[in-house]
């Protein structure tokens, strides 16, 4: 199972301030532990929301709002994508995330949908896929 570990933003991450060297070193060590364990799929930090935008959808209308966004505690500062056997294993990995300054923060854990989640029910009738336009033309040519 894949899990996204979502690091919530705070005033420091939204200011664009780089972490202290001790935190950077601790995070590097943590990331290396994830790599050695074979669970890390991706890990990225995000730039502050001031450098981003939101697109709001209302039917066919699109409205773009430039950052920054005021609700810091609802923003994402970064993430890890890991492969774990269970939510409990993912929680154990999150508990090991360094917090050398003892800061108050949170990491949200969310399971990622997998292809199997979209598979038909075992008792369902097999569905024949509709031919795509490219396939239909190829079928007529033969």
Automatic annotation (TrEMBL):
It comes from Lysobacter firmicutimachus. It comes from the Bacteria. Residues 1-109 form the YCII-related domain. This is YciI family protein. Residues 115-142 are annotated as: Disordered. SUPFAM superfamilies: Dimeric alpha+beta barrel. Belongs to the YciI family. It holds the Pfam family YCII. Residues 125-142 have a biased composition (Basic and acidic residues). InterPro entries: Dimeric_a/b-barrel (IPR011008), YCII (IPR005545).
